Q: What sequence folds into this?
């Protein structure tokens, strides 16, 4: 450290270095403080686990051979730990589809079966259908002997016919376990997106209000108050009626398949940036009277420079806390909206809509409602603990509002 | 000070007025009107019927005219007429408003009764096992989806162990001999929704009490008081808690603002005859007058309690300037 | 810990104990899930209100659960054959004589007379009263009677239509009570309905003429009813009836099992719940009956004929061929609802499933694929979807958000279409938005799923006549949300109204069905079944399966061991 002050390198001013050191040591302190908060650490661990599950969802699907959208209507509400088979009609459809999509490989496979007489069938052109309806043991035998190109793909199709359901099946016979895994993706994804977006918006608006003061502050804060005072639900119904792709700028990120997720994110952001804005404003108000800001001002730094270089880095810490708490809130909000039928739409799975779909039959299939509820509970607790830990770490004397 | 309050009061009134127009405008933006809903329920309505009804309801007039008609009615004390129930708004909202307030205040009271002592306790035991257990209890409440908790409570305490009714507000069709039996009957129906709402809000109050108390106990005068040899109880409650109380009161004042709209989902789950459910229905059914009055009450309560909280905060902490 | 043990123990001990279902005639608590409004028979529009009103008020005739027109306040139904009705000399009108039962009285003992019907007509015709469908009343031009026989009324009808005597929704108003209100407020917009006694004091004696009368109304909560001693028919057996609103279907069963309600009306359980509950009744031998009755309610998907993809009739046919409706019914509804082949239900006399008369679409994925290939939509191996000129075969599928049965069916169908290479994107909206704008203004991209509730032999005019395509011009009224235009169908619809021969009428209706099934403006899904759960002790309960509520027979209900 001493060397740095004695021999400042030419490209950095001493002030920059000092702030860099300050920042480094600050985050180090925060981290050291944070790891003393055991619950927060456990929370962070569980969150990381969930995020991993979310990211690895396709891998999990591949390994377990499950697909969140494959239905099996003849086996609805199956109990946990049961095995379910697709109906004959569904198996035939799968075969038809395979043959339509892979005409040549399937012809070869049929030929191979016919030549080697792998099992007894009626006619060569329908061999695959007969195979689909054969006993599982026969199927296994046939696949063990098949060599034609494309037989692996066919086996994949056949693997879908009978599946083991760890947590049972839902109202369309879909596997609950894999839907929960994919639901993690949507629920946590929505939570993080909403919290980040509202942090950015809140940061900008709060900083502007706090820094400029005067009528800008009054205007922005009254708008914030007004939005905060609006009853959320009614306005949500209105917004759900508006087509979001008409909003400029959003069109580029919205496709038909993610429309309802993006819409939900948009709606939730609309109602969650205000608290961040208030927090940032209060921080900025107290910061702007501090020496280093005053100094920068006297030195003639531009507003933008002061805002971005001096104020923002200092509000990041409290912002992190509010982002962490915000994620938990958004996940809950998604569930609440789903409860009113305004959340994520089928067939996309989210914990919220799984819970909503299960509530009618909570006495018949309690598992269906209890599982997503517990997951929401766990992840929200973890984010709350994480926020709590960060809070304590950043400012051990802090007062929570 | 007076100056500040008057200025904020005027600002608040202006915001309420502007928001009322905004809400009214929002309502008109929503697709469909009461006549559309009638068409849906009766396929045989003709285009003459539609034109006649629109004219009768004044739906064929521009928004600002309708807003003005509505506003002048309000200013004369006429809250309008509910299109869904076809009775005056005050008749339908009055009793439901009372029900909602009873539920909200009961749960608020229950939450505070549990949260404050626990908060103080865990502050005094900060860092110990007790603190962790209480903290977990608080966080689990905050993190629970309210309708999920409601459903679970119904299954557990209305179906499995039939201690409480699964839903409703009071026993219907029973002649209550005395006011006491009315109160006990209502209380019986209030238990599950109150517990649901309270458990969800305990966390916030508890954590707040805990940190306010921690802060207060860190002050110099506590050390002085201790050094003087005052008893532990006196130190904690007279010196520590009294100082934490000020910010706690502000917090509670702020939470009053949610009393009106905070229970919508809980009310739906328990079929509780409150105003939250009514608000939701009125919007779904495009019941303009009911929805607008609900908006107004909801918005005004938030803004007014915010104002009160601000004022109280400034009294409590003279360091905050009111300029 | 000890407390916890006690709790857990208690849980197991009491887990199987349920509040017993009601077995005495003292009281019956009925659960409904839909809102109701004030009970003025002219003003009410909600089905829950009609449900309750049918306990307290009757009209001249109604449709029985067997699907027959029967009398209520009338002595007999006037027809051309029985000479109680005749054409006017110019053949433009019909004049019918309705005789009201001698013992038909209002609940204050005053007789129900022609003047009460005439009064209802006067009120309904006023521009200041918000009667929804005015024609229910104004189809009658004039009601006249001799002062000496106040119960023998001559109705002169505006038009000569075959269904002139189906006046089930023409309900009388007690003139002796409401006249004063009417005189005071008739010139004020909505003045009458705001000040009607039904609204201000609904338990006033004399407002009702049915088996029960209202003793207490709390809108949004419950209605309490007690027998009306002046009822013209047999005295009702149950001494008190409470209709309770439980808005959340999720807690409906809990309410039933905890004894908060004794039965769930047809406006209650979702189909899924009823099926599941029926299984539970058997496995736990609970004291309830789950009742299912095929109804006229027609669940279908409107196809937006303005959509360039759906303009091609081959695509529309392929969409129908591609879905396995039998499996849908078997898997999702336990086989308890019926597959629909067109918009007329099997309990309607107009029904036919004769392949000579209509086109049938048996499930066939291959046929669907063939038709799509023919229409130029070729399968792409990369994603398994169909393309034509680089455009994906993708359709938007909408329905009411929050309706679980529909959402399940929707997802099921989405899977079925995907397997023939049609991408279907689901977008659901709250009912108020969906019905207000989306369906009417044809803002649904391709498909919109919902249901029609009607009565048998209902003219398809509002749904299929091209003048009923909602547009700016007609104030978005009409229900032809597909924008279906067929001149021939229009002509037949006009003819049906004035065809008095029932056989010829049926032939005309089936001619429409031919076009309907040939051109596929709509994908028929299934006819819903009505469901109700009643205590086993309840006798005399029948589900009607049409829009006239089961409470039209409430005087026959009784609770006995």
A:
């Amino acid at each position: 450290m001493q060397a740095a002050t004695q021999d400042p390198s030419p490209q950095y001013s001493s002030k920059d270095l000092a702030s860099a050191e300050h920042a480094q040591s600050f985050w180090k302190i925060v981290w050291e403080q944070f790891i003393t908060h055991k619950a927060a650490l456990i929370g962070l661990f569980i969150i990381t686990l969930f995020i991993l599950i979310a990211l690895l969802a396709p891998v999990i699907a591949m390994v377990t051979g499950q697909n969140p959208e494959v239905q099996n209507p003849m086996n609805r509400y199956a109990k946990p730990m049961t095995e379910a088979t697709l109906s004959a009609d569904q198996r035939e459809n799968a075969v038809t589809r395979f043959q339509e999509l892979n005409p040549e490989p399937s012809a070869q496979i049929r030929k191979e079966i016919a030549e080697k007489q792998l099992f007894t069938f009626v006619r060569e052109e329908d061999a695959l259908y007969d195979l689909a309806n054969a006993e599982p043991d026969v199927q296994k035998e046939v696949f063990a002997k098949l060599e034609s190109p494309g037989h692996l793909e066919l086996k994949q199709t056949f693997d879908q016919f009978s599946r083991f359901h760890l947590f049972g099946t839902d109202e369309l016979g879909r596997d609950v376990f894999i839907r929960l895994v994919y639901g993690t993706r949507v629920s946590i994804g929505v939570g993080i997106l909403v919290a980040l977006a509202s942090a950015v918006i809140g940061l900008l608006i709060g900083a502007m209000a706090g820094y400029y003061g005067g009528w800008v502050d009054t205007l922005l804060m009254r708008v914030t108050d007004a939005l905060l005072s609006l009853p959320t639900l009614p306005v949500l119904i209105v917004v759900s009626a508006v087509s979001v792709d008409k909003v400029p700028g959003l069109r580029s990120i919205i496709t038909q398949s993610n429309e309802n997720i993006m819409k939900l994110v948009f709606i939730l952001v609309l109602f969650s940036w205000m608290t961040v804005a208030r927090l940032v404003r209060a921080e900025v108000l107290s910061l702007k009277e501090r020496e280093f800001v005053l100094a920068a001002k006297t030195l003639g730094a531009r507003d933008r420079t002061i805002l971005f270089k001096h104020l923002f880095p200092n509000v990041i810490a409290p912002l992190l806390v509010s982002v962490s708490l915000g994620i938990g809130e958004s996940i809950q909000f998604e569930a609440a909206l789903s409860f009113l039928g305004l959340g994520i739409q089928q067939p996309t799975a989210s914990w919220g809509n799984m819970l909503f779909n299960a509530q009618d039959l909570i006495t018949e299939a309690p598992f269906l409602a209890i599982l997503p509820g517990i997951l929401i509970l766990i992840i929200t607790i973890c984010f709350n603990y994480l926020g709590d830990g960060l809070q304590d770490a950043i400012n051990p004397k802090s007062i929570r509002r | 000070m007076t100056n500040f309050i008057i200025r904020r009061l005027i600002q608040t009134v202006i915001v309420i007025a502007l928001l009322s127009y905004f809400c009214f405008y929002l309502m008109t933006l929503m697709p469909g009107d009461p006549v559309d809903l009638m068409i849906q329920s009766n396929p045989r309505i003709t285009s003459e019927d539609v034109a006649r009804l629109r004219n009768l309801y004044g739906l064929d007039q521009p928004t600002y005219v309708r807003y003005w008609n509505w506003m002048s009615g309000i200013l004369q004390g006429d809250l309008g007429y509910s299109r869904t129930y076809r009775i005056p708004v005050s008749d339908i909202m009055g009793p439901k408003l009372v029900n909602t307030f009873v539920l909200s205040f009961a749960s608020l009271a229950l939450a505070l009764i549990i949260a404050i002592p626990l908060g103080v306790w865990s502050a005094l035991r900060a860092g110990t096992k007790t603190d962790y257990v209480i903290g977990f209890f608080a966080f689990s409440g905050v993190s629970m989806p309210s309708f999920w908790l409601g459903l679970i409570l119904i299954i557990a305490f209305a179906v499995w162990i039939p201690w409480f009714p699964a839903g409703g507000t009071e026993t219907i069709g029973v002649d209550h001999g005395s006011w006491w039996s009315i109160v006990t009957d209502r209380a019986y129906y209030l238990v599950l929704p109150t517990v649901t709402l309270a458990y969800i809000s305990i966390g916030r109050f508890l954590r707040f009490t805990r940190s306010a108390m921690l802060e207060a106990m860190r002050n110099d005068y506590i050390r002085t008081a201790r050094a003087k040899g005052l008893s532990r109880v006196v130190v904690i409650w007279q010196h520590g808690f009294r100082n934490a109380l000020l910010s706690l009161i502000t917090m509670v004042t702020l939470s009053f603002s949610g009393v009106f709209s905070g229970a919508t989902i809980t009310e739906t789950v328990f079929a509780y005859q409150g105003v939250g459910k009514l608000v939701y229905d009125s919007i779904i059914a495009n019941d303009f007058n009911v929805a607008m009055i609900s908006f107004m009450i909801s918005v005004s309560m938030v803004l007014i309690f915010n104002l009160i909280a601000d004022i109280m905060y400034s009294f409590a902490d003279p360091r905050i300037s009111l300029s | 810990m000890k407390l916890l043990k006690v709790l857990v123990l208690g849980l197991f001990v009491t887990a199987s104990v349920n509040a017993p279902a009601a077995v005495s005639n003292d009281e019956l608590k009925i659960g409904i899930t839909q809102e109701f409004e004030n009970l003025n028979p002219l003003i009410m529009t909600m089905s829950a209100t009609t449900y309750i009103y049918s306990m307290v008020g009757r009209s001249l005739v109604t449709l029985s659960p067997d699907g027959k027109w029967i009398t209520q306040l009338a002595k007999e139904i006037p027809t051309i054959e029985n000479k109680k009705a005749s054409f006017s000399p110019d053949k433009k009108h019909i004049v019918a004589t309705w005789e009201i039962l001698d013992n038909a009285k209002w609940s204050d003992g005053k007789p129900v007379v022609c003047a009460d019907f005439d009064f209802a007509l006067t009120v309904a015709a006023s521009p200041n009263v918000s009667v929804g469908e005015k024609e229910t009343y104004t189809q009658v031009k004039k009601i006249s009677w001799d002062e000496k026989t106040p119960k023998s009324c001559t109705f002169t009808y505006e038009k000569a239509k075959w269904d002139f005597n189906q006046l089930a929704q023409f309900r009388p108003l007690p003139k002796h009570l409401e006249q004063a209100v009417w005189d005071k407020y008739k010139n004020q917009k909505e003045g009458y309905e705001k000040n009607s006694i039904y609204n201000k004091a609904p338990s006033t004696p004399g407002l009702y003429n049915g088996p029960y009368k209202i003793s207490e109304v709390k809108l949004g909560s419950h209605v309490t009813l007690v027998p009306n001693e002046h009822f013209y028919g047999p005295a009702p057996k149950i001494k008190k009836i409470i209709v309770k609103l439980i808005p959340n279907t999720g807690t409906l069963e809990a309410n039933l099992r905890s004894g908060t309600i004794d039965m769930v009306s047809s406006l209650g359980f979702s189909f899924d719940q009823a099926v599941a509950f029926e299984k539970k009744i058997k496995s736990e031998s609970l004291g309830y009956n789950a009742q299912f009755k095929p109804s006229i309610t027609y669940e279908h998907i409107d196809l937006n004929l303005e959509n360039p993809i759906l303009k091609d009739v081959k695509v529309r046919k392929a969409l129908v061929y591609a879905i396995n409706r039998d499996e849908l019914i078997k898997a999702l509804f336990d086989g308890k609802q019926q597959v629909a082949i067109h918009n007329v239900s099997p309990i309607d006399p107009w029904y036919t499933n004769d392949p000579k008369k209509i086109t049938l679409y048996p499930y066939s994925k291959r046929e669907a694929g063939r038709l799509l290939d023919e229409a130029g939509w070729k399968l792409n191996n990369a994603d398994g979807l169909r393309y034509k000129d680089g455009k994906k075969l993708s359709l938007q599928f909408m329905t009411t958000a929050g309706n679980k049965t529909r959402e399940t069916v929707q997802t099921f169908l989405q899977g079925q279409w995907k397997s023939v290479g049609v991408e279907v994107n689901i977008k659901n909206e709250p009912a108020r938005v969906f019905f207000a704008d989306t369906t009417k203004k044809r803002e649904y991209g391709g498909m919109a799923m919902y249901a029609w509730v009607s009565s048998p032999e209902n003219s398809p005019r509002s749904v299929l006549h091209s003048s009923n395509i909602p547009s700016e011009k007609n104030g978005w009224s009409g229900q032809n949300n597909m924008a279906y235009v067929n001149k021939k169908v229009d002509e037949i619809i006009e003819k049906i109204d004035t065809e008095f021969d029932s056989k010829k009428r049926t032939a005309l209706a089936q001619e429409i069905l031919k076009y309907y099934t040939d051109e596929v403006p709509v994908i028929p899904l299934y006819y819903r079944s009505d469901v109700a759960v009643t205590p086993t002790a309840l006798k005399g309960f029948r589900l009607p399966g049409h829009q006239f509520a089961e409470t039209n027979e409430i005087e026959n209900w009784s609770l006995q061991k």
